[in-house]
Design brief:
The chain contains 19 helices and 21 strands. The chain is of the alpha/beta class. The chain folds into two domains: about 230 residues, Aldehyde Dehydrogenase, Chain A, domain 1 (3-Layer(aba) Sandwich), CATH 3.40.605.10; about 200 residues, Aldehyde Dehydrogenase, Chain A, domain 2. The strands form five sheets. A seven-stranded mixed β-sheet has the order 12-13-14-11-10-16-17, with helices on both faces. The protein has a six-stranded mixed β-sheet with strand order 7-6-5-8-9-19, sandwiched between helices. Strands 20-4-3-21 form a four-stranded antiparallel β-sheet. The chain binds nicotinamide-adenine-dinucleotide (NAD).
Length: about 525
């Protein structure tokens, strides 16, 4: 494990240019941000107040009306240009992501790819997902029913520090294409990356007032944001998700929450064990394990446990840990003292209670103030904190299990249900995956196969979330549906001259007959026939 040259800095002028994109009154106090690699100053952003949030939402609300009136093709053109700009400017984005989060360049690149791919996915599909559709009417032939999607209005986005680029704007792109305005509150540890992501949206042609960024403390700005917006998209911890859910509930606004996980991997005896051990390294330690869908528990069938454990431990020991803006590190730094503290506490508690360290296990202040080695543990028992609590760091526990039934039962024994992985044959693995209580399950991959399937919904069961991102679900949630039903020939009530009892008999007879009406295959498959666009 070696050290490379220290980080390039953002530069005071560039920091000021990005900070100027924050919607804040001129005299606001400012907060400095520092690089996790070496503690050097990145820049300062305003500490926004409730007044700034109110101003941001008011301006966004005015801009939203004109935006919603623009044809979908004009909105999707912005997302296409955004995709191109994110890829063209990736070098600067990668530098900034690394400077603010301390992650490796390869992990930073996952963000760039994710943002570009999500923007292009919704540019290509928003019109299809949001098209008005015919639905089956109340009375065949007499009622024609159409469902329309209208934008919610202003969408609030509260994003975390771990994927500061993509989680700041990829959910927002879907909201924008659905005709909404957005007010974003990024995590206080990574405002500059979020601002750079938003700057590119403006350069892609997004009207300036349609997207506002407020920077500052979540518990201070969160209530005023939730108090003013029409929908909230939250990504962060389960603890904060519960607070936000209460606040949204009081206002009766919709929300979507992507929360924590304690994600399991199952390795069965019929798996390619060497491949599983090699790929598990990425599944566990991508972004220094500070990834909601990364693996923190591995259940291995008895017959192949020893082979897997020794191959995996060897791969973990061979990982290169380093700071700096180069491609050669397998893993970077932790983001903060708080994260480092949790990782050290989980490992220390496990070891004190009898767990064995197969690889790693130590902080590495020689590399930087916030470095911790990728760590594999075995002999973890239920009374250890690491067994059930989310570490959100580079720590994974290996468990020997008798058979697949025990593996599935233990994988499901968690308050969380975000992501899981199974290593087996494709057929056996995909059958077993359906028995896992999780929102995404990957067969012979850690997390990227399901996450990168942008046309499919992504999100958690149980304490891992409410709502979904990606796919149809990830854009329809930013709309209000409206059902317009037109009744022809006769109303759905007793015609003049027919008494109530006779009409009730006729209605009952009609329901019995309707039971045998043919199912329209297309209606069944698509959830509705598309209505021809008027413009
Ligand atoms: P966090 O909940 O502390 O912070 C996330 C965001 O919420 C930040 O912007 C923060 O400022 C804001 N916030 C904090 N308290 C708030 C409050 N009372 N009201 C309003 N906003 C508030 O989360 P974190 O610890 O910084 O992030 C890591 C967590 O996020 C982990 O649990 C991880 O699993 C989860 N996460 C989930 C996903 C997912 O897609 N499921 C993705 C990334 C991270």
């Amino acid at each position: 494990m070696t050290t490379t040259s220290s980080a390039r800095s953002l530069g005071a002028d560039r920091a000021a240019e990005l900070a100027a994109l924050v919607t804040a009154a001129a005299h606001r106090e400012r907060r400095a941000n520092h690089c996790p690699f070496d503690g050097s100053l990145i820049g300062e952003v305003p500490v926004c107040t409730a007044d700034d949030v109110a101003a941001a939402v008011a301006r966004a609300r005015t801009a939203q009306r004109a935006w919603a009136a623009r044809p979908m093709r004009e909105r999707t053109a912005v997302a296409r240009r955004y995709h191109d700009l994110v890829l063209e400017r990736q070098d600067g984005l990668l530098d900034l992501i690394q400077l603010e989060s301390g992650k490796s360049r390869a992990s930073a690149h996952e963000e760039v790819s994710d943002l570009a791919a999500t923007a292009m996915y919704y540019a290509r599909t928003a019109a299809i997902h949001l098209r008005s559709r015919w639905r089956e009417g109340a009375v065949p032939l007499l009622t024609t029913t159409v469902v329309h999607h209208h934008p919610k209005g202003v969408v609030g986005v509260i994003s975390p520090w771990n994927y500061p680029l993509t989680l700041a704007t990829s959910d927002a792109v879907a909201a924008l294409l659905a005709g909404n305005a957005v007010v974003l509150k990024p995590d206080r540890q990574t405002p500059f990356t979020a601002l750079a992501a938003v700057e590119l949206l403006f350069q892609a042609g997004l009207p300036r007032d349609l997207f506002h960024v407020v920077t500052g403390e979540g518990p201070v700005l969160g209530p005023s944001l939730i108090g003013a917006v029409d929908f909230l998209m939250f990504t962060g911890s389960t603890a904060t998700g519960r607070i936000i859910a209460e606040q949204c509930g009081r206002r009766l606004i919709g929300f979507s929450a992507e929360l924590g996980g304690k994600n399991p991997m199952v390795v069965l005896a019929d798996a390619d064990v060497e491949a599983a051990a090699r790929h598990a390294v990425h599944a566990c330690f991508s972004n220094s394990g500070q990834l909601c869908i990364s693996i923190e528990r591995i259940y291995v069938e008895d017959a192949v446990y020893d082979q897997f454990a020794s191959a995996f431990a060897a791969h973990v020991r061979a990982m290169k840990l380093a700071p700096g803006l180069t491609w050669d590190a397998d893993m970077g730094s932790m983001v903060s003292e708080a994260q480092l503290e949790v990782v050290g506490r989980h490992v220390g508690d496990a070891v004190a209670k009898g767990a064995r360290v197969l690889a790693g296990g130590r902080a590495r202040p020689d590399l930087g103030p916030l470095f911790f080695e990728p760590t594999a543990l075995e002999g973890v028992t239920d009374e250890m904190e690491v067994a059930h609590a989310e570490t959100f760091g580079p720590v994974v526990s290996l468990y020997r299990v008798r058979d697949e039934a025990e593996a599935i039962a233990r994988a499901n024994d968690s308050e969380y249900g975000l992501n899981a992985a199974i290593w087996s044959t494709p057929r056996h693995g995909s059958e077993l995956a359906r028995r896992l209580a999780v929102g995404t399950a990957n067969v012979n991959e850690g997390f990227a196969a399901a996450w990168g399937s942008f046309d499919a919904p992504m999100g958690g069961w149980k304490a891992s979330g409410v709502g979904r991102r990606h796919g149809r679900e990830g854009i329809v949630k930013y709309t209000e549906t409206q059902t317009v039903a037109v009744q022809r020939v006769m109303p759905i009530r007793a015609p003049h001259g027919v008494d109530a009892e006779r009409w009730a008999d006729l209605m009952s007879l009609g329901l019995k007959v309707l039971r045998y009406r043919p199912r329209n295959a297309l209606l069944k498959a698509t959830g509705g026939l598309p209505v021809r666009e008027r413009r």
